[in-house]
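Honest question from a wet-lab person: if I give you the sequences of every part of a complex, can you actually get the arrangement of the whole thing, not just the pieces? Trying it with mine:
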Amino acid sequence: MAPAPSSASPHAPLSGWSITLEEREARNAHEAGVVWFTGYSGAGKSTLAATLQRRLFDRGLLATLLDGDEVRRGLCRDLGFSSRDREESIRRAGEVASLFYQAGHIALCAFISPYARDRRLARSLVPDGRFFEVYVRCPLEVCRQRDPHGLYAKALRGEIAEFTGVSSPYEPPQHPELVADTEAESVEAIVAAILERLADLLQPPAAGAGRPRE
Amino acid sequence: MAPAPSSASPHAPLSGWSITLEEREARNAHEAGVVWFTGYSGAGKSTLAATLQRRLFDRGLLATLLDGDEVRRGLCRDLGFSSRDREESIRRAGEVASLFYQAGHIALCAFISPYARDRRLARSLVPDGRFFEVYVRCPLEVCRQRDPHGLYAKALRGEIAEFTGVSSPYEPPQHPELVADTEAESVEAIVAAILERLADLLQPPAAGAGRPRE
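Yes, you can. This is the full assembly:
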């Protein structure tokens, strides 16, 4: 039997079937982007990202938090803390951030992401000007005291090999879009600074291009 | 130096910082869900998913297509076609679908996903009633003729080991939410049937709970 005239053959894709980022941005009345928080465990990445997520949501924007701890329980549950596994973990995180970017979101990524090379890869997945690296800087001794997930204690007991700040290096960003000093500045002050840095993104991409949401 | 009173210590998370799915659904005025298209390569999964995505977008809903071919170029670029790699590929796809679900989207997933076990895992990541399996049924000989990506030809030449429908089995869903017969039915008719099946999802979750989008 021959296929029906408009059967679902992939040979004849319907025009207009895919949705461009431009269409999504016009709908959302803001641009998409990736805000990437990097720093030691305990530096405050998740707190900052979650607070920023709340601010963006309350403004009516599409924002999604991708958190290292959460991703370790799901997408990256097959990976540990070795440098090879960290590389793969950050690669996947970058790809997922890129998917959310393409879906029109501002993706807020909170990952230790200790290696500059891996962060560069994540940055390369979205266009110039749409990736904002926030270096969440906090002295290692303060992070170790906070130890919110007990990971430093585990690493010091030798239960985690190659843990950043204990037995594995952290490469600070050389040219981050923003440096957040969580020992000296308040969450609110830092989030306000990030919002200011994102200002261009938060505007409608082109006047009149948006279709009002009913 | 002691941390500032409201420094970004994860010991003192701010209340209300995380955004619940209920908040997102109220904002979006529709519920989140996962529509999972399974079937042979060439059966029409991507065409159906992309057409459905367009319909949902045009209604003002949040919908995102996750396509096997696209994911193979990004998130799963380290994986091939072996049964072990397929399993891992579908595991990751299910996790990403779940992330989009949590972000309030209707995730449209087009993956051959030949094994019932892997599809069950993807289903288990979202609550009951939020996962819709669409069995995209098409005779293998028709799919082989369509061969939209030249994969059957490659597999028949022995260049892909364990290719579904050539050298690897496909386990048809036993209880899919919908069966789409792409040899007999038009894309539009199938998409209309899926929209009808999703009707509950497409309504505002609770009257008056939504905050109008400005």
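Two things worth pointing out. Chain A has a mean pLDDT of 88. Chain A touches chain B through 64 residues (CB under 8 Å).
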